[in-house]
Specification:
Blueprint (H helix, E strand, L loop, with lengths): L8 H10 L3 H15 L7 H8 L8 H13 L5 H4 L22 H9 L21 H6 L9 E5 L2 H21 L1 H21 E2 L2 H24 L3 H17 L3 H17 L3 H18 L2 H17 L3 H18 L26 H14 L3 H14 L5 H17 L3 H14 L6 H14 L6 H11 L2
Parallel strand pairs: 1-2
Helix pairs in contact: 2-3, 2-4, 6-9, 6-11, 8-9, 8-10, 9-10, 10-11, 10-12, 11-12, 12-13, 12-14, 13-14, 14-15, 14-16, 15-16, 16-17, 17-18, 18-19, 18-20, 19-21
C-alpha cells in the first residue's frame, strides 16, 4: 500500500505495482515520449520531483500514463498517476478502444480545438490500436446517429462543397506537406463539417456527406502523422473509423485501418501494424476495387517485412503488383493524381500508382536486408512519381540518399540529398524536417569530404 505521507502516493503506488525504480520509469517514459515526437527527456531526478508533488505540463502526464498502461496491460489514466494539473474536461474525442461509434461531430469539434498535442490526457496509445473488424464494427451499429439540430437542413450544394474540399486539401497536402494543411483542415472539420453532421438531411445526401467527412477526417489524420503529431493523428483515425461505420463504408474503414498500420509501424509497433494491415486487407478484399485492394496489400507486405515474415511480405507484394497491373496501365497511371480524375470523393483517398508500389517494394526489400534492391525500387518510384507529389518525392529522395550512404556510395548520396534540398523549402512537414536532421547527422562524420561539406553548408542556409 502506498504511503499517504508521500505528496504523490498514486505515482508511488504505480511504481510499486510495476516494480520500477524512478530511473526505470524515466527510461521507459523517455521511450514513449520519443515515439510521440515530444522533446522531453527524463531521469531519476525528474521522477523524484514528481513524487514530491510537482506536476509537469501536458503532454508529460499523458506520456507517463501511457507508459504505465503498457507495462501493466490495463488503462492507466492521467488522474491515476497523480500528475494531473486539473480535472480533465469531458470530451467526445476520447474514444475507448472497445466502444461503439461515438458522436463524430463532437469528436471533430473537440479535436479542432487542439493546437498541438491535443487534450491533456492525449498520448499515442497502444490500446487504441485494438480495432474491431468491419463485421464486428458494422454489426454493432444499431442505427445512424440522430442529428440534434433539426432546424438546419443539409443541401446538395453544401455536400458538393465538402466533396470538393477533399480534393483541395489532398492536393495541398501532397504538394506542400501536412504542416500547411493540418490547421485549416482541422478548423474546416470542426466549424463547417461538424455542424452539417448534426443537421437533418435526406438519407442519400447524408450518406454522401458522411463518406466525404470520413475522407476529410482520414486526410486530417494523415496531415497530423506527416507533421509527427502522432497522438492527434490517432484520434482523427478513430473519428474517421466512427464516420466510416456510420456511413456503412467498409472501403473507407479499410483505408483508415491501413493508415493506422503505417503509423504504428513507423513508431516501431510492428506486430500491431501487421494486425491492422491484415484487418484492412481482409475488409477491402470484397469491398474495394483492384487498385484499392493493391493499396491495402502493399501495406501488408511492409508490415510483414518489419515482423521478419519474409514469405508473407513477398507474397503480399506480388499480389499488390498483379492487382495494380489489372486495374491500370503502367504507361499512363503516373501522369495524373487520382484527385484530378476521380468522379467523386470515394476514389480520391487510397489512390495507388506505380510510384507508391515501388516505394513499398523498397521498404520491404530494405527491411529484409536487400539494400541494393531497395535502392533500385526507390529510383523506380522517383521516375514514376507525379510531379505535384512534392512531399512524397522528398521523403523518397531522402530515403534513397540514406541507403546510398549505407552501401558506401557517398558521392551518390550527396547528389541525391541535393535533390532533396531542392524540394525542402517548399514543404512544411515533420517527416521532411526529420529527414533533414537525419541527413546532417549522417554527413557530419564525412565533413572532410568536399561534397559533404558543401551539402552541409547549403543545408545550414535553409
Amino acid at each position: 500500500m502506498a504511503d499517504s505521507r508521500i505528496p504523490n502516493p498514486l505515482l508511488r503506488a504505480l511504481l510499486d505495482e510495476t516494480g520500477w525504480s524512478g530511473a526505470e520509469l524515466a527510461r521507459h517514459a523517455a521511450a514513449v515520449a520519443a515515439e510521440q515526437g515530444s522533446p522531453h527527456t527524463f531521469d531519476r531526478k525528474t521522477v523524484s520531483f514528481w513524487l514530491t508533488g510537482r506536476r509537469p505540463r501536458p503532454p508529460v502526464p499523458a506520456i507517463v500514463a501511457e507508459t504505465f498502461s503498457r507495462a501493466l496491460g490495463r488503462r492507466v489514466t492521467v488522474a491515476e498517476t497523480g500528475l494531473a494539473r486539473a480535472a480533465p474536461r469531458p470530451s467526445a474525442a476520447r474514444t475507448s478502444p472497445h466502444a461503439g461509434p461515438s458522436d463524430p461531430a463532437a469528436a471533430l469539434r473537440d479535436l479542432g480545438r487542439t493546437k498541438h498535442h491535443g487534450p491533456a490526457d492525449a498520448a499515442y496509445r497502444l490500446a487504441l490500436l485494438d480495432v474491431p473488424t468491419w463485421t464486428r464494427a458494422a454489426g454493432g451499429r444499431t442505427a445512424p446517429t440522430i442529428p440534434t439540430d433539426q432546424a438546419e437542413t443539409v443541401t446538395a450544394p453544401q455536400v458538393e462543397t465538402v466533396e470538393q474540399m477533399v480534393r483541395l486539401f489532398l492536393d495541398n497536402d501532397g504538394a506542400f506537406g501536412g504542416g500547411y494543411a493540418r490547421g485549416p483542415l482541422a478548423a474546416y472539420l470542426a466549424h463547417d463539417v461538424a455542424p452539417l453532421l448534426r443537421a437533418s438531411a435526406p438519407p442519400p445526401l447524408r450518406l454522401r456527406l458522411l463518406r466525404a467527412a470520413t475522407r476529410l477526417t482520414y486526410l486530417c489524420a494523415f496531415t497530423c502523422f506527416d507533421d509527427e503529431e502522432h497522438a492527434l493523428a490517432q484520434r482523427y483515425h478513430r473519428a474517421a473509423l466512427d464516420l466510416a461505420v456510420e456511413a456503412a463504408d467498409p472501403a473507407g474503414y479499410a483505408v483508415v485501418l491501413r493508415a493506422m498500420s503505417v503509423q504504428a509501424r513507423s513508431l516501431g509497433h510492428h506486430h500491431e501494424a501487421l494486425v491492422l494491415a491484415e484487418n484492412a486487407a481482409a475488409t477491402g478484399q470484397r469491398k474495394a476495387g483492384p487498385a484499392r485492394h493493391a493499396f491495402l496489400l502493399g501495406q501488408v507486405a511492409v508490415a510483414a517485412a518489419a515482423e521478419a515474415d519474409r514469405s508473407t511480405a513477398l507474397s503480399a507484394l506480388a499480389a499488390a503488383e498483379r492487382l495494380l497491373d489489372r486495374s491500370t496501365s503502367r504507361s499512363t497511371a503516373h501522369q495524373v493524381r487520382p484527385s484530378q480524375t476521380a468522379p467523386g470523393p470515394a476514389d480520391v483517398i487510397g489512390g495507388y500508382h506505380p510510384a507508391a508500389l515501388a516505394h513499398q517494394e523498397a521498404a520491404v526489400r530494405a527491411l529484409l536486408g536487400d539494400l541494393r534492391g531497395a535502392i533500385a525500387a526507390l529510383k523506380t518510384s522517383l521516375r514514376h512519381r507525379p510531379s505535384d507529389e512534392r512531399r512524397s518525392r522528398a521523403v523518397t529522395t531522402a530515403r534513397l540518399a540514406e541507403l546510398q550512404l549505407r552501401t558506401g556510395h557517398l558521392d551518390q548520396a550527396v547528389c541525391t540529398w541535393h535533390a532533396f534540398l531542392d524540394d525542402y523549402p517548399h514543404l512544411s512537414s515533420g517527416r521532411v524536417t526529420s529527414a533533414l536532421r537525419t541527413m546532417k547527422a549522417h554527413l557530419r562524420p564525412h565533413a572532410d569530404n568536399a561534397g559533404a561539406r558543401h551539402l552541409l553548408a547549403r543545408a545550414a542556409e535553409l
